[in-house]
Design a protein that fits this description.
Helices cover 49% and strands 13% of the residues. It is an alpha/beta fold.
Length: 245
């Protein structure tokens, strides 16, 4: 059982910041070649799902962790409130259209898990609908797995004090004010409800793709963990360039 209050949001005490930053840069350089083979082979695809509280650093992570990858082979989707057209379909309709074809790597900044989190916390849907969505998401991820899509799921675990500091900074830093949302306080007020919901979905949606809980108070360590996980995953795949002829 996942209990987020028992998982640190900080790097381990023994973590050497400068050494790990060098290792991260090395792995990022290798990711460029691994992604190139993924694209050329055209057999596997990779879906990276990034979840986390507001101000957990999703945007910055995506910008930095994937900076060495050829833009031709990668695409980022940031999921917001569904449009009128999307509301007129089942909740996975818009998600399924955005999964990567073979050879591609797609990154989801938030994901279909918002369709469990938000209605659970704000009680906008009946319990039976939420229950149904758990089952459908597991089936959906099984479908992806059976079609050679590797799914990596990350939760950026940020402390309440760090989250409050970052949200406050959005109101004073001109370069970050565009991120400020009047509903930020409401999100903070419901922090514990979101945490409890996350803990449940971590447990109930782990069979096809396990969750990686990433300490997110320090950006350099957060980037290291995500890059390392992706690097190790691609190294294990039987990637190869197509043969001649």
């Amino acid at each position: 059982m996942f209990i987020l209050s028992q998982i640190s949001t900080l790097p381990p005490e023994e973590a050497d910041k400068e050494q790990l930053k060098k290792v991260t840069q090395f792995m990022k350089a290798e990711l460029s070649e691994l992604q190139n083979m993924l694209y050329a082979q055209n057999k596997y695809s990779v879906l990276v799902i990034i979840q986390g509280m507001d101000a957990s650093g999703k945007d910055g992570l995506i910008r930095n962790a994937f900076s060495t990858i050829n833009p031709t082979g990668i695409q980022v989707y940031s999921w917001k409130k569904p449009t009128e057209e999307e509301f007129a379909h089942d909740f996975l309709w818009r998600i399924h259209k955005a999964v990567p074809r073979r050879g591609m790597m797609h990154i989801f900044n938030r994901s279909h898990y918002e369709d469990i989190l938000v209605p659970t916390v704000y009680q906008t849907h009946p319990a039976e609908i939420i229950e149904q969505r758990y089952r459908l998401i597991n089936d959906f991820e099984l479908l992806l797995k059976q079609n050679y899509t590797v799914v990596l799921k990350f939760y950026l675990h940020v402390s309440e004090s760090e989250q409050r500091e970052r949200l406050a900074e959005r109101e004073t830093d001109p370069t970050k004010f565009w991120k400020h949302n009047p509903n930020d306080q409401q999100t903070l007020d419901n922090r514990q409800k979101f945490i409890r919901c996350y803990e449940t979905l971590f447990e109930r949606c782990k069979e096809q793709a396990p969750w990686h809980i990433v300490p997110a108070d320090k950006n350099w360590y957060k980037e290291h963990i995500v890059v390392k996980t992706l690097w190790e995953t691609l190294k294990k795949l039987p990637l190869a360039y197509p043969p001649k002829g």
